Amino acid sequence: MTGRLFDKVWQRHLVASPEGEPPLLYIDLHLVHEVTSPQAFEGLELAGRPVRRPDLTVATMDHDVPTVNPDGPISDPLAAEQMARLRKNCEAHGITLYPLGNAEQGVVHVIGPQLGLTQPGMTVVCGDSHTSTHGAFGALAFGIGTTEVEHVLATQTLRQSKPQAMAVTVDGELPYGVTAKDLVLGIIAEIGTHGGTGTVIEYRGEAIRALDMAGRMTVCNMSIEGGARAGMIAPDDTTFAFLEGRQHSPEGAAWERALDDWRSLVTDEGAVFDREVRINASSLRPVVTWGTNPAQSVTIDDVVPDPVSFATPAEQHAAQRALEYMGLAPGTAMRDIAVNTVFIGSCTNGRLADLRAAAGVIKGRKVSEGVRAIVVPGSARVKAEAEAEGLDDVFKAAGFEWRSAGCSMCLGMNGDILMPGERSASTSNRNFEGRQGPGGRTHLVSPAMAAATAVAGRFATPGDLHGGN
Amino acid sequence: MRAVQRVEGRAVVLDRSNVDTDQIIPAAWLKRVERTGFGPGLFSAWRTDPGFVLNQPGADGAKVLIAGPNFGCGSSREHAVWALQDFGFEAVVAPSFADIFRGNSIGAGLVTAQAAEEAVAELGAALSKNADAKVIVDVAERTITMPDAGLSYSFALPDYARWRLLEGLDDIGITLRHADEIAEFERQRPGWLPSSAPAVHAGT
Questions:
Q1: In this predicted model, what pLDDT tens digit does every residue of B135-173 receive, in sequence order?
Q2: Do the chains contact at A20 and B159, CB–CB below 8 Å?
Q3: Which residues of A touch B74 (CB under 8 A)?
Q4: How far apart (Å, rounded) are the C-alpha atoms in residues A65 and A414?
Q5: Which of A290, A310, A292, A312 is nearest to A302 (CA)?
Q6: Which of residues 54-73 of B touch A (CB under 8 A)?
Q7: Are the C-beta atoms of residues A321 and B18 closer than 8 Å to each other?
Q8: What three-state secondary structure class fits B64?
Q9: Where are the alpha helices (DSSP H) in A233-342?
């Protein structure tokens, strides 16, 4: 029997498969944040249940933390209350917490890998749909709701019907200037917003192997935007090099034993997937979304599509609605669309590699007049490391605001929002209506394109700034 | 969780695909620390439009929401389920649901009835002629019927989800019956797996 990576990780976490019930899956790491956990802790307390494994649970504050003056008083009383609850719950149950102001605080999907908590072959859950990020390490990682958060706190397990496995194979090499973000937006455009529903996607092929860990995390992060609860990439030397020496990585003899085990976490030759999609990397170009879901995208060289060009009446209707919301006319060149705001950050693109890519474009240039441009590092440590390299000076000299870590404008919970009608180039993951603030218009792009767009004042690639394409 | 055998009442048709959880309950509402009180936030951006379906007479008191494919995509926020329930909806009928939303619904006792696209379209068409027609979502039988129009369809719902809805069971209680197996599993976990102990919560 030939196994798939997903089956191998699934199988080793099966605690029980009771007749007539979904299998019970053991959870190796439960990440917790302030927004989706208070009701779960309350439920535990009402039932008089303890947290089964506080040692496999790690909490931080990210969703509604301020990114300006984080050490000062929190002006939003509701956000302050959520943070206070998390602190109280973690203290009561003996759970490690990296609160606002801590050197390890940050977006939950940035800090897990950064601390070495995310390792190959593990199961990782969090009350956040972008938990799929951790699949970049060959972990099975997915988002859960608050009722499930309570279930994991109480039992360290989850009831899960086994999903199907889908392969997305990306052959060839990404062209120069095409990033992991463009790659995953290209994949979503191909499979659609629910092409991956009911499946775990394994990303395979030469172009995936060639990505660094930051790029792999960007790809797995957006699996959920294609409907898949989880995305996975088999661990390899790139993964092991990233993990070696991190705070929670195994050491010495344990590291060697772990490596032997992790090397077995690959899909065997000849294994069959429930669904397979192949994409040629060389056909990809930098991508910009034009609509209100992440599958509604075109390349930077394209124009806003005409709704009548879509195949079905439902798609035509959805495109029409999206264009009305976005305030765009069919046929407009993407390069002619001006933006008010540029946001660089989030669990998709808030890592050091992303900030370096953006800083490389922005260096020696200025943000276009009238454009508000902000950088929100994915974690306090990313911020410190970026500052040690002088990236903050590059951004500030160009006219960017240099903020503290958090989810910020990705979901607009903390006051970092677009005003109605404002248009952003954003390195985040969702362009849903109102996602970045009521009436706000979001276009998803890569960090490099966000930086170039900040300079040009309209959608642009780094190449455009040199006068070419 | 409250048991749900059968949902019977008026229905509202939201003829849109990919209804994401940011629309169902915008992020500004996620600062609440309770499970209740989310009803006013349900589709709050869309409700600013007087023509929106929930602003029509009869939407108040509706128990069934009929929507397009991939309902509940996006964020894992269970608040979306709580908001639908708080408004009064007890069942959502759609051709497909996003995975996390479906799991959350089952956990919280909201019926997600996955019906064929034609069935959803026919129900919508019948309701456009008679908005007050009664719709019955029967969990035990896994059927959606509209007696006035003589319509009846089956819907998909996994056996376990059906059982839990019918019995109103708490998943944690069922799982804790396997406490010995969980403990046995824990004894065999590899020693290199990460642990956050001893807990750090000293703050900054």
A1: 999 999 999 999 999 999 999 999 989 999 999 888 898
A2: yes
A3: 129, 224, 430, 432
A4: 6
A5: A290
A6: 68-70, 73
A7: no
A8: strand
A9: 237-243, 252-262, 313-326
Chain A residues near residue B76 by CB distance under 8 angstroms: 36, 127-129, 131, 143-145
Which chain A residues are closer than 8 Å to B179 by Cβ? 155
Q: pTM higher than 0.90, yes or no?
A: yes
Angstroms from A456 CA to nearest CA on chain B: 30
The shortest CB-CB distance from A95 to any of B98, B189, B199 is to: B199
For residue B73, give the nearest of A82, A131, A227 by CB distance: A227
Retrieve residue B28's tokens.
Answer: 């500004």
Q: Say if B204 is an interface residue toward chain A (CB within 8 Å).
A: yes
Tally C-beta pairs within 8 A across A and B. Answer: 231
**Residue of A42, A56, A115, A147 for testing the chain B interface, max B β-carbons within 10 Å:** A147
- β partners of residue A342: A373, A425
B172 touches chain A (CB under 8 A): yes
Tell me: the pLDDT tens digits for A27-46?
999 999 999 999 999 999 99
Which among A52, A292, A277, A74 has a CA at the least distance from the CA of A184? A277
Q: What CA–CA distances, in Å, run from A207 to A178, A203, A210?
A: 11, 10, 5
With 0-12 CB in 10 A as exposed, 13-18 as middle and 19+ as buried, what is A190? middle
- A chain contacts of residue B78, beta-carbon cutoff 8 Å: 36, 39, 127, 145-147
With pLDDT > 90 as the criterion, what percentage of chain A qualifies? 96
Average pLDDT over residues A45-54: 97
- Phi, psi torsion values for A266, nearest 5 degrees: -135, 155
Angle CA A419–A421–A422, to nearest 5: 60
Alpha carbon B91 to its chain's center: 7
For residue B62, give how far its alpha carbon lies from the nearest alpha carbon of chain A (Å).
25
Q: Nearest residue of A to residue B28 by CA position?
A: A413
Cβ neighbours, 10 Å, residue A457:
16
Interface contact flag, A155 B73, Cβ < 8 Å: no
Give the closest of A36, A64, A254 to B77, CB-based.
A36
What is the model's pLDDT at position A468?
46
Residue A351, CB half-sphere, CA atoms under 13 Å: how many? 23
Centroid of chain to Cα A366: 28
Question: Would the CB atoms of A154 and B78 count as touching at under 8 Å?
Answer: no
Would you state the structure tokens that stand for residue B142, as one six-digit string?
Answer: 């896994």
Judged on CB neighbours under 10 Å (0-12, 13-18, 19+), B34 is exposed
B202 pLDDT band, cuts 50/70/90, is low
> Any alpha helices (H) in A48-178, and if so which ranges?
77-93, 108-114, 146-155
CB-CB under 8 Å, B103 with A144 = yes
Yes or no: say if B70 and B17 are a contact pair by the CB < 8 Å rule: yes
> Which pLDDT band holds residue A469 (cuts at 50, 70, 90)?
very low
- pLDDT tens by residue, A265-294: 999 999 999 999 999 999 999 999 999 999
Mutate to test the interface with A, among B24, B31, B167 (most CBs of A within 10 A): B31
Q: Read off the pLDDT of residues A174-231 as tens digits, 9 standing for 90 and up.
A: 999 999 999 999 999 999 999 999 999 999 999 999 999 999 999 999 999 999 999 9
